[in-house]
Task: inverse folding
């Protein structure tokens, strides 16, 4: 650390200008004032450095000291990350609470991970083995679900000279290696990585495996691939956060990183209270054991909000490098973009659209590019799936953050206020949304779910599209004037909308639907469609079909337990076959 | 505190003073600005650099000049003396008594910006507050520690609704009443009198603290006022273990004042001229609602704002809605129909209601009834607009029932008296009464067992 201290020249909110800092470099982390507020150099100009400070600067004066750490903004990586809740710059909120009480005070200095806790380390290499960057040197059982693979740090290339099993803290030496030049490398379970730099990989793989979320409209109509990227734009109250929570709870990724970026404090509390009570459907273990939370609520410092999504994705990349699949939720990227705008405004930069800085598009693209299914350095496959909520002002997605996000993400779940207002949840609009992964994932669905799946999908989508067309006619001539055939389409579309796409996040059973049950449900509905169409051809009126028992049963199918799905399906099938017996009646 | 007066004011704009030669003013430091005629106003440092401090004045700049006006930097940030003797008192926008009573002196000097509650220390709000208003209790349940704004429009009865909530709000099974902190931001004297009278008549004034900035008073005080109100509320909640209901009206005036400062500073404007940091700024007000683990008190916030042009996409309601845990939206259409409280149920939302309802809290059928009322009313309203085109004759029998339902819902469920305090049972039973006008099979959102138990069909 530098001996010579600089001094503050100007304070304007989170932006501080300082002079005489020793050897300032772009993105160096500095400590400002007596309280040692953490900041980052974001501009250099003949002897003066502009710093964005991650904490409230109230009371800071010109003349206060500034100290350069010479390091970039980095996260600490190692066992002990899972189950934690961090602020935007990786300070654990529970430790901040222990230090400063119920309110977050400034200048709190806490370790990102517990440095005292001992972990049982099991080596996976032995003396004389060659190790390179990203190789697994050993394992630690981090939580009941996740085995933490200790990776050789980036830049390592050498031969193991010593390694031993035992209980260690993450900073203790677990062994050593000799570099190719003969230099000794000490091995520990801890490493650091600058958040703004993507961790290296060998290459990117095509997206072929879907992230199964248990949410019917997503898995069936607009699936996302593991390693893919999705945008969820919607006005307030449209259910963005509920969708993000549902994905965090139920998606079949190995690990979830949830970044609450500039959102509500009570929402993070809700996660903190509900997640420990929930169990992962795959392993039956508490889902907190595979979750990392990052919470920089809206009233916490704005610069740390800017950093929070980088902190999140770096942690995700670290676990990806162990060969895991990670789902990263960022709620909301609009607040991150606003943080960029606020800081840019304080720097008096020339604004682009709506006051956002001209580099907004580049920053958004850089972030989503860090997602992907990849060959990690040790040759195994890992993935980071990035799902970003966008909060467009007034729900109008023509604004810059939505537009820049849609340009780079491949799945678009368009949340619709009018659906949300009638409590149709998830309020994903089936006509405006899209997934560009559909073709890539067809093979998986056909092999892993059923051969007929892709056919069912197209039929269902077709019905929904026709419904929209017919509804335009209804607006002009009324429902009664429609031919029976079209009434039948409206009828089935309603069943699809209400009994399939609508899903309650608050019902114990309905909150998650396996692919198998989704198949059974969709198949039932389309069988009903077929039976109804045949009946209409026989001259049966749609009125006569309103109260068939099959419909009641299909409506209740979402509440049937997973284990009963097959039995329930057979029952529905029987009820559908009763439709054959309905006779046409003369008008 | 320094005794140095700077007479180096080099530039004055409508609300800002540029003071030169100041070497080390702290960011957000308080400044006393003394004029030649003996008047003085308070200001705050917005931007401090070596040799220049930009000071925002909370009072009027009328009468200030270059050369004689003096600035004294007070070495401290804005603080408020708090104590229980504030209860029953009325203060102005910067915390001075305006009821003729004595100044508050206290050892508790609290920084008015407040610190963010650590999300890890928060307790999930889950205690149902019964307001006695069906559209809130049954449809958009308020819980203790929530922030639930009222989105209104000019001329709509938001003040009456807020007063009715303040009068009727209670926790079932607890005798304790809410303390009220009322922040009147740029409201006119009639509105101010209305609230004062309401508080007096119900005897609530004794457990209320009122901060008042009238529309004729300096607009810059409006930026300070909500923070004074919340600092007081935090003291009452977390130091004195009270349950506090904070009513802030009208947040639109707050945002206007914020825009005024931003324009004076020549900042790059965001949407419609409001500053780009308005979201962050508003969050430092709204996020001060909540409950904290192992502390008895709580802060529940009901901010009121009038949507300019009834436009819910306007930045003020828009940014508010993104921060608050739902919103109660008032409808001009219902107002015209003579429905009070004119709550537009479809646009309203309470994000925290799930935690506060159900068995043991309200009643087991609450979620289902709420869901069913929503979707049925929504369908009824859709049909209403459809009949405007194709006429009622083109509707099926079942559709006609939905249409009728929408009317009944507005007239019987939404509509209630200003002094009518409906308990939650009454509201839910009213819902079942309305359902009985529909076919039993159409009640899809409520569990069968509850339909059997609470349904009012005559079999």
Result:
């Amino acid at each position: 650390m530098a001996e010579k201290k600089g001094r503050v020249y100007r304070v304007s909110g989170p932006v501080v200008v300082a002079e005489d800092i020793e050897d300032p470099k772009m993105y160096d982390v500095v400590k400002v004032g007596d309280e040692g507020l953490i900041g980052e150099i974001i501009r250099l100009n003949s002897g003066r450095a502009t710093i964005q400070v991650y904490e409230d600067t109230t009371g800071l004066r010109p003349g206060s000291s500034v100290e350069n750490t010479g390091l970039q903004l980095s996260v600490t990586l190692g066992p002990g990350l899972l189950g934690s809740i961090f602020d935007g710059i990786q300070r654990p909120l529970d430790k901040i609470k222990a230090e400063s009480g119920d309110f977050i005070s400034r200048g709190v200095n806490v370790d990102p991970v517990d440095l005292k806790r001992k972990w049982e380390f099991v080596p996976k290499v032995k003396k004389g083995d060659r190790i390179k960057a990203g190789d697994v040197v050993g394992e630690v059982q981090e939580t009941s679900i996740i085995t933490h693979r200790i990776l050789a740090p980036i830049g390592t290339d050498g031969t193991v000279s010593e390694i031993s099993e035992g209980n260690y803290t993450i900073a203790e030496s677990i062994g050593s290696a000799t570099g190719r030049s003969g230099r000794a490398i000490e091995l520990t379970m801890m490493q650091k990585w600058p958040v703004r730099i993507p961790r290296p990989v060998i290459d990117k793989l095509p997206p072929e495996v879907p992230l199964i979320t248990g949410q019917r409209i997503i898995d069936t109509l607009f699936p996302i691939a593991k390693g893919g990227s999705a945008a969820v734009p919607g006005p307030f109250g449209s259910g963005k956060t509920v969708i993000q929570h549902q994905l965090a709870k139920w998606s079949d990724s190995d690990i979830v990183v949830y970044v609450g970026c500039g959102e509500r404090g009570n929402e993070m509390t809700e996660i903190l209270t509900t997640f420990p009570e929930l169990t992962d459907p795959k392993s039956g273990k508490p889902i907190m054991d595979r979750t990392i939370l990052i919470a920089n609520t809206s009233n916490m410092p704005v610069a740390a909000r800017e950093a929070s999504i980088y902190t999140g994705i770096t942690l995700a990349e670290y676990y990806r490098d162990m060969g895991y699949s990670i789902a990263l939720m960022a709620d909301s990227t609009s607040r991150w973009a606003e943080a960029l705008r606020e800081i840019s405004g304080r720097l008096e930069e020339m604004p682009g659209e709506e006051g956002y800085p001209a580099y907004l598009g580049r920053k958004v693209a850089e972030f989503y590019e860090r997602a992907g299914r990849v060959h990690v350095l040790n040759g195994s496959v890992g993935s980071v799936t990035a799902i970003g909520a966008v909060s467009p002002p007034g729900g109008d997605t023509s604004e810059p953050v939505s537009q820049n996000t849609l340009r780079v993400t491949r799945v678009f779940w368009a949340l619709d206020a009018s659906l949300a207002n009638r409590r149709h949840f998830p309020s994903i609009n089936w006509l405006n949304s899209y997934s560009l992964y559909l073709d890539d994932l067809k093979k998986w669905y056909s092999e892993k779910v059923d051969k007929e799946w892709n056919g069912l999908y197209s039929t269902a989508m077709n019905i929904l599209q026709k419904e929209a067309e017919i509804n335009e006619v209804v607006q002009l001539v009324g429902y009664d004037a429609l031919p029976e055939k079209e009434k039948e389409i409206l009828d089935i579309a309603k069943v699809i909308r209400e009994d399939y796409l609508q899903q309650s996040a608050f019902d114990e059973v309905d909150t998650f639907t396996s692919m198998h049950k989704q198949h059974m449900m969709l198949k039932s509905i389309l069988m009903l469609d077929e039976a109804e169409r045949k009946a209409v051809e026989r001259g049966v009126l749609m009125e006569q079909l309103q109260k068939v028992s099959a419909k009641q049963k299909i409506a209740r199918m979402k509440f049937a337990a997973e284990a009963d799905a097959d039995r329930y399906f057979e029952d529905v099938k029987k009820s559908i076959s009763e439709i054959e017996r309905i006779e046409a009646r003369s008008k | 505190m320094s005794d140095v007066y700077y007479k180096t004011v080099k530039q004055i704009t409508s609300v800002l003073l540029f003071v030169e030669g100041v070497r080390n003013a702290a960011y957000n430091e308080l400044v006393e600005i003394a004029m030649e005629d003996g008047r003085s106003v308070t200001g705050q440092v917005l931007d401090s650099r070596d040799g220049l401090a930009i000071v925002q004045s909370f009072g009027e700049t009328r009468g200030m000049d270059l050369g004689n006006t003096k600035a004294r930097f007070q070495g401290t940030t804005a603080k408020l003396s708090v104590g229980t003797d504030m209860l029953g008192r009325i203060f102005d926008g910067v915390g001075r008594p305006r009821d003729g009573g004595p100044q508050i002196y206290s050892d508790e000097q609290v920084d008015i910006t407040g610190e963010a509650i650590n999300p890890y220390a928060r307790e999930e709000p889950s205690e149902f507050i019964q307001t006695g208003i069906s559209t809130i209790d049954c449809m958009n349940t308020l819980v203790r520690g929530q922030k639930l704004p009222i989105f209104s429009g000019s001329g709509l009865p938001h003040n009456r609704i807020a007063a009715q909530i303040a009068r009727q709000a209670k926790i079932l099974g607890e005798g304790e009443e809410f303390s009220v902190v009322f922040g009147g931001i740029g409201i006119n004297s009639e509105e101010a009198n209305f609230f004062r009278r309401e508080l007096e008549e119900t005897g609530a004034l004794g457990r209320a603290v009122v901060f008042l900035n009238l529309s004729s008073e300096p607009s810059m005080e409006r930026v300070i006022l909500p923070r004074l109100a919340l600092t007081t509320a935090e003291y009452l909640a977390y130091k004195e273990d009270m349950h506090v209901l904070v009513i802030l009206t009208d947040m639109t005036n707050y945002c206007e004042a914020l825009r005024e400062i931003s324009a004076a500073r020549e900042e790059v404007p965001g949407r419609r001229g409001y500053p780009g940091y308005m979201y962050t700024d508003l969050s430092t007000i709204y996020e001060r609602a909540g409950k904290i683990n192992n502390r008895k008190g709580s802060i529940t916030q009901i901010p009121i704002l009038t949507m300019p042009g009834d436009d819910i996409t306007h930045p003020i309601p828009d940014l508010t809605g993104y921060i608050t845990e739902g919103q109660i939206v008032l409808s001009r259409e219902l107002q015209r129909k003579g429905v009070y409280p004119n709550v537009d149920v479809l646009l309203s939302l309470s994000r925290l209601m799930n935690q506060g309802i159900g068995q043991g809290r309200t009643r087991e059928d609450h979620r289902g009834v709420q869901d069913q009322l929503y979707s049925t009313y929504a369908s009824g309203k859709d049909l209403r607009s459809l009949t405007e085109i194709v006429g009622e004759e083109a509707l099926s029998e079942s559709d006609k029932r939905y249409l009728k339902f929408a009317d009944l819902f507005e007239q019987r469920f939404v509509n209630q008296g200003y002094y009518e305090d409906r308990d939650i049972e009454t509201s839910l039973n009213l819902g079942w009464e309305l359902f009985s006008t529909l076919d039993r099979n159409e009640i899809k959102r409520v569990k069968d067992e509850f339909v059997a138990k609470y349904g009012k069909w005559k079999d």
